[in-house]
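Appendix B. One record, verbatim.
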Amino acid sequence: MSRLIAEELHGRGMTTEIIKIALPLYRLQQHLYASAGRHVGLWTHDNELLRLLATQLRRINPDFLADDFLTRMRASRADDRLHRGGPYVVQTCHPACHKVH
């Protein structure tokens, strides 16, 4: 969905950037695999590991994923009109990011 919105905005002459909330989880997953001698692509999806990483990040710092997302959003080079009250394209993270009750 976020890609479709980005394409629509691009069609209107705006530059966009999709900022994925779960990026830190995927980077950690890739690092753990590499540490274990297995190299995987950044967006490889190991649901069990991603869920564990999300749980532990929440335990250590409940605000980390949101804070990291906001930091990357503020650093975005997307069209300035987006930063002046225009639409933001937010891609929600995978269910592994969400706390399981």
